[in-house]
What does this fold into?
Amino acid sequence: MSLSRTQTTFAPPVMEARRWLDGVTHPSDRPLLNVSQAAPIDPPPAPLREAMAQIVLDDPDAHLYGPVLGLPELRGEVAQKWTSGYGGAVKPTQVAITSGCNQAFAAAIATICGEGDEVVVPVPYYFNHRMWLDMSGVRTVPLMTGDGMIPDPDKAAALITDRTRAIALVSPNNPCGVEYPSETLHAFMDLTRAHGIALIVDETYRDFDSRAGAPHDLFADPHWDDTLIQLYSFSKSYRLTGHRIGAVVASKDRLAEIEKFLDTVAICPNQLGQRAALWGMRNLGDWLAGERLEILDRRAAIHDNFSTLAGQGWKLLGCGAYFAYVTHPFGMSSADLAPRLVQDAGILLLPGTMFMPDDMPGGESQLRIAFANIDREGVETLFDRLAALSY
Ligand SMILES: Cc1ncc(COP(=O)(O)O)c(C=O)c1O
It folds into this structure.
């Protein structure tokens, strides 16, 4: 009997990690430090929640089905902000709103790939991308990143076959935190275009990029939409995580294909969430700028305090967006170490083994620290607890 679609992949890693907490009690002087998930734990800011309450009461359309590709005003707002922000032309007809960025990836892949096709993905990868490719019957072709955790377009070129349909990048990267240089993205755009395949760039964390101005110039290319598919999330920027709003920016023709997927899976994105995202884009620019500075300060705290761990043999491989990606010095796999850290140090984080295929080396010595929800003091406490460990 053949495997079902879901049987082709693994169980959700974040849920598995949550189960490590079962039955463990944390002393009051050493509360749990949860650095496992890349999601805000606080609700959206109060003015946005108030606006949402008004929308619930006053806007009857917020409770009904809406257009499959999203609220026209929100598509227009994204197009306008992208046009000015990236220095290129993005039209509202090139923007679709999705039920979160994971769905945007799923929809994009559904329009590109058939059974047995291949997508090149830098490793370590974002595990939900791998899971969706598995469930779509698509082979994930791992592209090992080297020093600096930045993928090399020349190495990617060597992996392209007649089954390759896309290269999928995440920048700023989950899990490694690194921001891909504009030239790297440009080289990937040239490579994918030359092979007539798609370049998917997931920019879920773009609002927390440390660089001033646009992180790349891909949209400045007047023909960007013959190759580029950009993905975005409203989960991190306005903390609308639970309202499930994301976006896909691509050619009008591709969005017509994506419409088939979205119509069948969710009919339309969450109507309240879309209105909240629109309100956020129009009113929370300054607030978001402040959030970015706070995340950048937490990132600086990782660098400032890393000597505590470096002295014990730890290494910082990448740091940025919501993540620090590190190697540990212990003679055991991170897959065994991570569950033990819950009991031994009151720390929940994810092992590198969750971000790569089982047969690839490296993950056993790596750990991802999602630091967005801990402040400077929290970073110091985290590092003190890790530095005190010996196995
Ligand atoms: C790279 C990346 N893409 C997509 C998502 C999911 O975003 P959303 O909540 O919009 O589905 C995440 C969340 O962690 C992510 O890290």
Notes: The longest strand covers residues 164-170. The chain has a mean pLDDT of 97.
